[in-house]
Description:
Layout: H1 7-55, H2 62-69, H3 72-103, H4 111-118, H5 122-154, H6 160-166, H7 169-195, H8 199-205, H9 210-221, H10 225-259, H11 266-305, H12 330-351, E1 361-364, H13 377-386, E2 390-397, E3 403-405, E4 410-411, H14 412-415, E5 417-420, H15 426-430, H16 450-457, E6 462-467, H17 475-486, E7 493-497, H18 500-509, E8 515-519, E9 533-537, H19 543-551, E10 555-559, H20 564-573, E11 577-580, H21 583-594, H22 598-609
Parallel strand pairs: 1-2, 1-11, 2-6, 6-7, 7-8, 8-9, 9-10, 10-11
Antiparallel strand pairs: 2-3, 4-5
Amino acid sequence: MKEPLTVSALVRSVWHDFRHARRALFIYEVLFKLVEVWLLVPAVALVLGAILSRAGHIAVSNRDILDFLLTPTGLLYAALFSTGAVALLLFEQAGVMVLVALTGAEERPPFKQMLGAAFRKVLRIVQLSAVQAALLALALLPFVLLAVLTYRTFLSDHDIYFYLKERPPNFWVAAGIGSLFLLAAVAVGTWLYVRWAFALPILLFENQSCRAALRASCERVRGVGWRAGLILVGWSVGVLLIGAAVEAGFRLFAAAVLANAGERPVVVILLLLVAQGGLLATLSFVLVIGLGLVTRRLYLLRSEQLGLVRSDAWKMAPSLEKPATPWNWRLAWLSLPLFLLAPLALWINMSRYVMDRPPVQVTAHRGHARAAPENTLSAIRKAIESGADYAEVDVHQTKDGVVVLLHDRDLKRVAGDSRRLDEVLFHQVRELDVGSWFDPAFAGERVPTLKEAINLCRGRIKMNIELKFFGPDRRLAGEVARLVRELDFESECLVTSFEYDALLEAKRHNPGLRTGLIVALALGDVSRVEVDAFSVRADFLSDELLREAHHRRSEVHVWTVNDAGQMTRQIKRGVNNIITSDPDLAIRVRDEWASLSGPERLVLAARLLLGLDP
Length: 614
């Protein structure tokens, strides 16, 4: 059969498959998600957690994570993580393909029989996942190396914040080259995805090894790669775009409903949450099931076109020991209460927002960096005037060891001087103007010492002192600890750093210090670290980390939050401190939240859960 691979034929056959297997597919997807959430994902997390525990190291910064991943243990972790992620996707797709093949036109096999057929080749699917993950990593490695080379060539002369602020020609050259590398990497990843598209059905239905399946897939895709790629990628992109449009329409509807919810909005909120959950579940179902059906049909049509399978190949499936029997619905019916109870669990979770908590504290990032030059005495004075609870400052040392306030590794961005701070003596730093870059009104502003900043803050505002390290020298931790003890400032400050060893060193020099670990990304259970506070990037903070930290009586500070909606979200979650470049806004949001009644807080929490503006 040499007819072209037409979209119309594909649509008819996919619809035929779905129409005859829709009930079984629905139940399978529900059960698979439950197994994935309650068994598969926890099992993978347990294995990865055991590896991290044996490594004996918790990585909380980009450099720490990179250093860990370059070790043998880190490479093992990365390999298992990527294999597990790909395997979960393949298992789900395998179940869809085998179920459709078993169901056929009339037959509906029992769950146990279907599950056994779907996962009979678990080991080979895991092997396929490992091979695909490894080959993808090797294919993308050159782009990563080229990106690193580009960074070192164009963006390594000064601190990265200088390039982000000033955006000189070098920045745009690097950005352009980086964009080309990114597009090329996406193109390579998409090309490999299309070439490997038939590997899973070949593995399932033709009893081949994973390597043979990959080779056979590449052979069958040859000649129809563009068409197959447009169909597969187009399906995913199309479903996501439609889902985004439906979700946007639902948000408009939900906003109008909540605006007229009245004094007792409980039922309305629950119905909206259930409706939103249903929309998201439907989108997931259409995306996953549709991709599995389309992939299988493409494989069958292409194989038939090449004369490799017979025309009734839609019935082909792994051999069964027993004939199919009527579908067993018991497990599906037992699983439905879990989904029906989910909105009630959300409601119970939301009810805690009604409770009064100690008001969240506000930290002015780098002083009040929107009102005055960052990390200056003027910025700290503005933070005090705003009513902030803390002023966050960055400190490191000059060449002669004086602890001063400065964020970057060099003085280029704030003073126009390309020298690194550790190359300059304090009296030379003192001569530089670090205010004019922000506004001429601050001309003549000087780099302050930590001692000057402490004397300004004492009794007026607390300090979050972040230790900045740009080299192997670690004397800064001990020097800051000594200075805080000398000035008797322990009760009014928190010393923070990305580096846990530096915090331990500071604590060794001054046991009375309060310390905080800064977390942007992490590998390992950071909640086990013995600190007084966790300073966590807003989009990384999970409910589990928040809960564990509070269980250990550690504060949770979240950074850097400058949007009113995000501030409200963090307040309702129960964080202790919001680090922001706009402390005036944060204080206003905090006061407005405190003034709300219980029902008003519930409506606001519902708006946030529904993705609406507060």
